[in-house]
Amino acid sequence: MTHFFSSPERLIALGLAVLLGLLVIVPLFQLVRETVTVQPYDSAYLPGRQPGELTFFHYERVFGGRLSWALFYKPFMNSLVTAFGATVICLALGSLLAWIVVRTNVPFREFVNTAVVLPYMLPSWVMALAWVTFFKNDRVGGTSGVFAYLFGVQPPDWIAFGGLPIVICLSLHYYVYGFLIISGSLATVDSQLEEAGAIAGMSRLRQFVSITAPLVLPAVGSAVVMTFIRVIGSFGTPAVLGMPIRYFVLPTQIYAAIGSRNVGDGYLLALVLVLMAVLFIWINQRMIGVRKSFVTMSGKGFRRREIDLGGARWLVFAFVVGLMCLTVILPLGLLVLQSLSRTAGNYDLSNLTLHYWIGARGEVNALYAGVFQNPQILHAAWNSLRLAFFTAVATGILGFLIGYVVVKTRGSLSSRALELAAFLPYIFPAVAFGAIYIGMFSRPVGPIPALYGTFALLVLIAAVKNLPYTSRTGIAAMLQIDKSLEESARVQGIGWVSRVRHIVAPLAASGLVSGMLLSFIGTMRELSLIILLVTPSTAVLASVIYTYQTDDVPQLIGAATLLLVALVVGCNILFRLVFRNTKMGFA
């Protein structure tokens, strides 16, 4: 026992176990408890029952009641259709781009490698806003979009809104996961294996199917899991493209249920999302676990051969440039055009104005001032920056401590448990995680006061949700530091705080900076996680943009979204300049 309390890493491990247990494990149990207890809203359906009593009313109502089709089954089917459809397209597109970058002689490889990840810098729902700007019709969207203006034909509802555009927009954003994961795995496949297949008489297609594809199967499985979990928990895109025609998926149905104070049903739907994510991970592990080996590197010589595309290499390059125009330049261009329109739906040059950027209320629009004259937008922008900064700092500190403890106690049960607990927030779909925290922090928890409606709750949930990024980068950074460096300092009598401050932290800085930047960018553009938690005083840019979407103010939607993108890109550049002497762990 004396040895335990004299070991800093064990004391830190104990503190982290308590903290992660409170912030990750307890909320899950809290979510389950809320689904089997009477809620205040239920008094109309359960007369005489008191809030907090045990009941299975929500399970009966959601899964077997008269409204179960609208409450659960239809949103559930819509979620499966959009998630599987987007995952398949993301996997196909990400794999194709990974193959182009890693295995071919495409021109300007470094440019292509950077360009294909640019959509990740944008909020996932920017593509949805651009889609509405281009394809909306006067039957659902109120005013016509660019398509109707150019061609004089109103697009059908199934093109303007619904499942098809949701799948397309999600696919054009989340394919980056597939590209990053599969390209990393594909780069380790020895070309000599494929050459051996060619000698044996295999065609190039047969080589890929029989040799290359099976070796990158674990990476494909990881890409599928990451993409599926992100897509099925996405709120912004389905809200923009689905809710106007009442095309609900589980995240938007959760938002609608909790927004109408029907929290018991909302928590139950959130639990379904969590279980789906866990089930999907389990199925993937079972499928991959059938194979005995996926070894692609050994002690023998390694060689990677590029495929010569000949004259087609320029067509492939043009394809990549076209994809970047479709996923980045065109959406931002449409939002610029929308932000400069005096009257929505009229894209004539005579209709252009700067009012929605610099105009005061009452000049062009009697209700709304421009971005730089709008206190609501400026306050939300400040909140976004504050939230992202505090989240990055909190996740950086926690990620460093987790990495330190996991590596120092590597191989022990506590190390594996702590590493798993730090990763668990990733498997919770964002909107479900927000619902969990509403249930937990809407009332005091021991010495912790009720946090609902406070800025502290936004920082807390954003830090916990982004912890998987900084914990992984923290662990990777700590694994690169030889333990003898700290041990030699300890032998010389240098205290733990000084060792960490002067030796460990500087050496681990590159990995920590990378994780903090990922947390910062992710928090700035986050909507699904905080949409259930924000109030007028804690609103961020993403939530304000969604409010303008529901109020149908397209010009301010475009201007505020462009401001958000500018802040994300600008902060990213500033971050890199400040830490330019620190070798970042990403491109």
TrEMBL record:
Pfam family, one: BPD_transp_1
Spans traversing the lipid bilayer: 12-32, 76-102, 114-134, 158-187, 208-233, 266-283, 314-337, 387-407, 419-440, 446-464, 527-548, 560-579
Top-level taxon in the UniProt lineage: Bacteria
Keyword Transmembrane tagged: yes
Membrane topology term: Multi-pass membrane protein
Keywords of the record: Cell inner membrane, Cell membrane, Membrane, Transmembrane, Transmembrane helix, Transport
Subcellular location: Cell inner membrane; Cell membrane
Main localization (coarse): membrane
Keyword Lyase: no
Domain ABC transmembrane type-1: 76-284, 381-575
Family that this chain belongs to: Belongs to the binding-protein-dependent transport system permease family.
PANTHER family assigned to the protein according to its UniProt record, in alphabetical order: INNER MEMBRANE ABC TRANSPORTER PERMEASE PROTEIN YDCV
Name of the protein in its database record: ABC transporter permease
Organism: Rhizobium wuzhouense
